[in-house]
Specification:
The protein is of the alpha+beta class. Helix content is about 30%, strand content about 35%. The protein has helices at about 5-20, 45-60, 125-130; strands at about 30-35, 65-70, 75-85, 100-110, 115-120. Strands 1-5-4-3-2 form a 5-stranded mixed sheet. A hairpin with a 2-residue loop joins strand 2 (about 65-70) and strand 3. It is globular and about 50 Å long.
Length: about 140
């Protein structure tokens, strides 16, 4: 698949996440998908990826805005903003009901029109601070 096709696969993934239809992403994800930054309790492969996206959507009610989508070779880089609300348990943290807005970058490797690997960098400290989950004085 060419870079335009790879970008379309990734764009579709974010659409499904935003629409809370992550179970429909199975055809976008290779059975041997490798997550390089797994969430606590996340399994491996395609099922692990679907679990990850489900944990994110049920715990954080996210809305991703894709700011940049860049592709070269078999890689697609996404710079995004995520505005969400902590509505359910996420990574062992009970819901706070608080909102957050963070930025992040995801890198996907694709082959055969499917996601094969994922790496990311996100503002976890900023999110925890906005959710009130840091000790007092830690987010100054």
């Amino acid at each position: 698949m060419d870079t335009a096709g790879n970008k379309n696969v990734v764009r579709r993934l974010y659409t499904l996440i935003n629409e809370r239809r992550v179970e429909q992403a199975t055809d976008l994800i290779a059975p041997d998908y490798q997550e390089h930054d797994p969430l606590p309790g996340q399994g491996s492969g395609r099922e692990g990826a679907i679990d990850r996206f489900s944990m994110i959507t049920t715990g954080l009610a996210p809305h991703f805005t894709v700011e940049d989508l860049i592709a070269e070779g078999d890689r697609v880089v996404v710079r995004w903003t995520n505005a969400g609300t902590h509505v359910g348990d996420f990574a062992g943290l009970p819901a706070t009901g608080r909102t957050f807005t963070i930025a992040g970058i995801d890198i996907y490797r694709l082959a055969g029109g499917q996601l094969r690997e994922h790496w990311h960098v996100i503002d976890q400290l900023g999110m925890l601070g906005q959710l009130g989950l840091l000790p007092q004085g830690a987010a100054t």
